[in-house]
Design a protein that fits this description.
Blueprint: H1 2-39, H2 42-128, H3 133-150
Length: 168
């Protein structure tokens, strides 16, 4: 923000200097014109005045057109910036939507794979007479109830591994 302010200050100073130079140049030209007209006939003065008026009118028209063109270009630039920002926003929304869709598909795929694997493993587990998770949970609850009645405290120690001593 400070750089922008500095640029504006520099632009204002340069613009002021240019205005000063233009004023001085016009002053010098006016003096030269007056000196030249003292030597030239009246008809030449009229032609030069007409030419000067046409040139000034042309310059004013050119300034108006330049300002209008500048405003139009600025307006178009703002519109383009808005369109680009909207496009980026739309692309970000689309990316988010695609990411959610891909995540859902992956979750569905994982669910189908888990279902298929469990369908394959279930007959093998029944054949091996393995306990299901719900059976293990119910046995844990029942064991906890029995331990409460008997008065056995839960131990959280891990069983120790037997180690052999190495011969020295």
């Amino acid at each position: 923000m400070a750089k922008r302010a500095q640029k504006r200050n520099v632009a204002n100073e340069v613009s002021g200097l240019i205005d000063d130079v233009v004023e001085r140049a016009e002053s010098v030209l006016n003096r030269a014109r007056e000196a030249a007209f003292e030597v030239l006939p009246d008809r030449a003065e009229t032609l030069v005045d007409d030419f000067t008026n046409q040139t000034r009118k042309f310059t004013k028209d050119l300034d108006k057109q330049t300002k209008k063109l500048s405003k139009d270009l600025d307006k178009q630039r703002k519109q383009v910036v808005k369109r680009v920002e909207k496009t980026f926003s739309d692309l970000d929304k689309e990316r988010t939507r695609l990411a959610k869709r891909a995540e859902k598909r992956v979750d569905d795929l994982v669910g189908r794979v888990e279902h298929n694997v469990s369908a394959l493993v279930r007959p093998i587990a029944k054949g091996l007479d393995l306990a299901s998770q719900s059976e293990v949970a119910s046995l844990k609850r029942r064991l906890a109830q029995i331990e409460k009645r008997v008065g056995v405290k839960k131990t959280t120690r891990r069983p120790t591994r037997k180690t052999t001593r190495q011969a020295a």
